[in-house]
Write a structure and sequence with these properties.
Layout: H1 10-23, H2 26-33, H3 40-49, H4 68-80, H5 87-100, H6 106-115, E1 121-124, E2 126-127, E3 132-136, E4 141-148, E5 151-157, E6 161-163, E7 172-176, E8 180-187, H7 191-226, E9 228-229, E10 232-233, H8 238-266, H9 272-298, H10 309-326, H11 329-337
Parallel strand pairs: 1-4
Antiparallel strand pairs: 2-3, 3-7, 4-5, 5-8, 6-7, 9-10
Length: 343
């Protein structure tokens, strides 16, 4: 089997999980909710020193030579710590930029090298309708990859209107065609390549959502085992433990669907769009129900500022909104209904 189809080995995944857990804590996210982004640059630099941002870059170009099967696992671990930095975007952008690096002007090569040494940020903008795109603004990205139908451009943003939603650790900007400077055209009239990048970006967002849901469930299980009522842990009650088991099954179903979709993207299979749709249904179902029930297990304390679990509910809603902006659940169900299961 090709090494690009292999998942992360246990030691590497444990190392990634331990690093994220120690360096990106709920207090990091609370600070961002309060408008304080100190420490993000150091965290970004350490992420790059681990080589995570070049996971998809072929080994002969100095990367790790992994595929989407491993990349979605990195994204899941990032989601589990509520990672506020564009790691998934950097992972997806790297193989495109590294392949074209020698064709770029010297100053642009230096900017890209600066990104992948951990000194600067890069993002993939999300199409936001009516010739507008969306980026996150909790950090300053000098480089943005802008997908536009069959074209893919590397741009810098001149101006973006900043907004905050339910997750204040992820403020975002909306910019139009007049809001950026074109630095380089990456793909011109290559709709298949642009579409593949957009599909991979979508799957990484699902994986982050899965990580958010899984960590919220872990917190709920831990609390259900510790909190006692009438002389026994509340998790001993069937109404709670059966619901927790059901939520775990939703996470497992979503993880299997995401892994299958990742393999279809690595193999460029004809059914990759269908697999993405199935993965999105299951990941949004898990993200929505698991985080909501996890808060419920904590009771009224679950929505207090001191309790971590509400941060996962907010990030879950944030990621669900991103996923459904260009692929609503109604549209997905309609595509699945029309799918030819016989071929």
């Amino acid at each position: 089997m090709s090494s690009t189809l292999n998942p992360l080995d246990k030691d590497m995944r444990d190392a990634v999980r331990t690093f994220f857990k120690s360096e990106c804590t709920p207090n990091t996210i609370r600070n961002l909710h309060n408008g304080e982004n100190t420490g993000l640059s150091d965290l970004w630099s350490e992420i790059h020193s681990m080589g995570l941002s070049i996971a998809l870059v072929p080994e002969h170009m100095g990367g790790l030579g992994m595929g989407m099967v491993a990349a979605v696992q990195i994204a899941e671990e990032a989601g589990s710590c509520l990672m506020p930095l564009p790691l998934s975007d950097a992972i997806l952008a790297a193989p495109i930029l590294f392949e074209m690096l020698d064709s770029f002007p010297i100053n642009l090569q230096e900017q890209i090298n600066s990104v992948y040494s951990g000194a600067d940020f890069i993002q993939i903008a999300t199409p936001w309708g009516n010739n507008h795109w969306r980026t996150t603004t909790s950090y300053s990205s000098k480089l943005v990859i802008k997908p536009d139908n069959s074209n893919l451009d590397l741009v810098s943003i001149k101006r973006a209107d900043t907004h905050t939603g339910i997750d204040k650790s992820m403020p975002f900007g909306i910019f139009s065609n007049n809001g950026f400077n074109l630095l380089h055209n990456l793909y011109d009239e290559q709709i298949d390549k642009v579409k593949l990048l957009v599909q991979k970006h979508r799957l990484m967002q699902m994986s982050e959502l899965l990580g958010v849901a899984h960590k919220a469930l872990d917190l709920a299980i831990e609390y259900a085992c510790e909190r006692e009522q009438f002389g026994k842990p509340i998790g001993a009650n069937q109404a709670i433990k059966h619901n927790l088991a059901d939520r775990w099954m939703q996470i497992d179903n979503a993880r299997l669907a995401i892994a299958h979709a990742a393999k279809s993207l690595d193999n460029n299979s004809d059914d990759k769009e269908f697999n993405l749709d199935a993965a999105q249904i299951l990941s949004i179902e898990a993200g929505n129900k698991v985080t909501a029930y996890s808060v419920q297990v904590f009771g009224a304390m679950g929505i207090t500022w001191e309790c971590d679990v509400h941060l996962y509910l907010k990030r879950s809603k944030h990621l669900q909104a991103l996923l459904e902006k260009n692929n609503t659940m109604g549209t997905i169900y309609a595509r699945i209904w029309q799918h030819d299961f016989c071929n």
